[in-house]
Structures are given as structure tokens and as C-alpha cells.
């Protein structure tokens, strides 16, 4: 078991590296294409289906500044896979360098229990939870913009802000009465 | 021209779209040029029927000619009902030398020995297939041309494809086929589908297959979607492996279109925490799993390639193309021989 560590490598100048983890490998591709178009900083994208990452890429892999778990709410497998992958992250990442991105939340067939489970998971790990629309170009552009904002902070490219500071403001919180049946 | 053949012609014209009717009549090649001109395909169906009926009366054509027309249409558009595959077994020494004329004579003779009233029509299609149209009757009734059975057989192959056959007629057809093709038995091939071409391709392995190899050359090039140097797939190799394995199991390129696959489980229930279920020891635990899709094999390949189904592909799924069947009965000893419950129904 090899943990992915946030500070085991040196950062490169004006560069931010993001790791997109998605079990279905659909949305991550369009997201990656949009992310690398950013001109202000050099964005490197790594795509993975699940963690742990293969050992043989260890050398070539840059320091990962932000890990994004993409969860398709329409699929139970997607959530289970993300949960299983979380074990292979160094605890240091949870100080503001992990975020969850949920898709398909507007789909009527999604059970509310799964949405609650994702929210609880994000709240428990003190991570922000973003919602995105993966079908339309607008939705992809929106999600890209939000991720870039977090990524720049996490990579230390924004003066006076740190990932820990940002995450204390953006982390997901769950209302205390979420488990009560009347909650909606 | 009698009433029956008139009704059959009416039904036939009603069922065939006007444009298809034009080509069918063209292929039939019995109408003179003038007669063909007189049929106006832009008219409503009943007018076309009237014109055709008049031509039939004029030439004194009978049921034989109407069925000819029907056959031409069915050969061109075979995907209208469920097709069931059968496999001939234990060929005799002279099975390889059966040729069309001999087969025709033998088949007709054997079938009319078994059933008094039966009307058989045999036609060889361009792709080497022999098409047989059987209108069944019994000892008291004349052949029913409204519900014909169609049989497709490629000479010198063990496969027979049948549509709309009732369980009562099945033994009769089986016997006639066995005797005329010089085999000793016939069995259900456990394959059925709406597309005749698809089940034929699957059984005769006429689709693009991929064989296991350690050196995937062309496949990796095809699968390269990542173009930007700043995007990198961490598990690219894994993905390619999955794709390769999915192609090995289901084939590459276009796949035969199957509509469904059925798995019938008849196994013992093994869970020691559940007393009520394990106590009924002798009784098997029965359940039926059915996969259906417009193109089942394509869907399964996609499932395996995208990682939704685990790879290497389980033998349960890969034996659909491998064994060419889509009905399985699973007993405790693995994939057991299927029982006789899958008889084609009308």
C-alpha cells in the first residue's frame, strides 16, 4: 500500500498539478481538456480510475496539489469506489487539498440517501463538496473555473491564502437534523 | 384463384410497404413489363391489391405463385419474428455430399410421409442458404398458408434456423431434416434472436474476432484519446488491458446484434446464516437472470472495457460468443446442458 503524500516532492515554478479520480472515466476527460487551457499557470492533469496509483509512475508524477474525487450520484459503484480510494491518501491531503465533485445531482432518479451519504462523507473529512453539470459545455466550464480557484490556492500560487485557510471556509457542513425523517 | 390465395395475397400486400413491394415484384420476375406498369405504387393499398388480384386472375395464377411472392419478401426481410437455431449432430459418411436437388426431393418426401397435408416450398438464395417454407396441415385440414414456418439451412453446415414453429410441428420437422441432411440427431442450439444474420454470424463465427496476444500493437494506437502532453492517465495500461480483454472475449468491430441472454440458475443455496433457505436441501434454488439490449454483445463489451464488469470477462458472459448460445442453465456442476424448456413458441 503506497500512500500519496502532499509534500514528498518539490513544487515547480508557477505550476499546479491536479489529480482527477473518477471510476467511470467519462467526465474527467472533458474536465481535463478544459483545465489545461488555463494560461495564467501551467496546469498538469493526472487522471486515475481509482487509488492507489501505480508504482511505476512514481518517478514521473509531479507533486499533486489537489485531489478531486468525481462522484456520479446516479451510480452506487462510483461512490463506493471513491470511498475505497480515500484510504490511499496521506492525512496531510485532508488539510484542504481534497475536494469532492458530485455530478448528476439534479437527476430525479438519484436516491436522496446517496446524496446525504456524499454530504456526510465530505463533512466528515472537512472537504468542500462541489456540484457540477457534466453534460453541457457550460457546466464543464463552470466546474473548471471552480476547481482552478481551489487549485491555485492549494498550489500556493495565491498570496496570503493557504489551502487550510480556504478549506475552513469552504468545507461542507451537514445540518444537525439531516437524519431526521422530516428533513427535506 | 381460390378464396384462400386471395386472402393471402391481400394480407401480403397489406404487410409490405409500397416501395418494398415494387422491388419484390421486380425480383419475382413473372409480371410482364406492361403489367408492371399498370401497378401504381402511389395508390392506396387496396387499389394495388385490386390490380394485382386482376393480374393473378388473368394469368390463372394460384396459391403457388402467391407463396413464391411471400418467400421473396421474407428472404429479403428476414428480421420479422424470433429465429431459433438448431444444430444437427452425428453426420453420416455421405453427409458432406448432400446437394440441393437431392436434399429438396428427400426433404419433401420425408415430410409428406409424416404429415398428409403439407405444402413445402424450397428456394436457394444467392448466399448459399436454402430457404424452406412449410405450410402445415394435419390429416383433416388443408395446409394453413397463413402461418407458415420458415427454415433456413446452409448445406454442409450443421446449423438450421427456424422461425414460427410450434412444439407440435417440431418433431416432424426435426425428423425430415435429419433424414434429408444425412445426420443422426438434432438439438436445440440455445440461441435465438430477432436478426437472422446476427445469429448466423455468431454460430458460424463470421464476425471480427480478436485472439489473445501478448503484443497488443494496433489496439493501443487505436485507443489513444489523450493528446495533450499535460494530461496523463495514471492507469492507462490498465485501461488498455481491459479493452484488449474485452475485445478478446467479444470480438472487435461490428458485433452480431443479439437482443437478449438468459441465465437460469438451478443451484443449491449456500449461506449458513440463513437457516430457512439451507434447510430445504433437496430443492434447488431457482432464479432467472435476463440481460436485454438492442445490441447485447456491444453492451457487454462496453461494460468490460469501461470497468463496470470485471476483467478478465467471466466465462458466463464470454461463452455467449464463444459457444454461440444465449440461453444457459447453470447447475451446481457449472454450465450444465440446457433442459428442454426453451422450445420455440409461436
UniProtKB/TrEMBL annotation, chain A:
List the record's Gene Ontology CC terms alphabetically: chromosome, centromeric region; nucleus
A Pfam cross-reference name? CENP-M
> What keywords does the record list, in alphabetical order?
Centromere, Chromosome, Nucleus
Major place of localization?
A: nucleus
> Which InterPro entries is this protein grouped with?
Centromere_Cenp-M, P-loop_NTPase
> Its domain of life?
Eukaryota
Where does the UniProt annotation locate this protein? Chromosome, Centromere; Nucleus
Q: What is this protein called?
A: Centromere protein M
TrEMBL record, chain B:
Q: Name one GO biological process term.
A: CENP-A containing chromatin assembly
Q: What Pfam families does this protein map onto? A: CENP-N
Keywords from UniProt, A to Z, are: Centromere, Chromosome, Nucleus
The subcellular location is: Chromosome, Centromere; Nucleus
Where it mainly occurs, coarsely classed, is nucleus
Got a GO cellular component term for this one?
nucleoplasm
Q: Which family does it belong to?
A: Belongs to the CENP-N/CHL4 family.
The name this protein goes by in its record: Centromere protein N
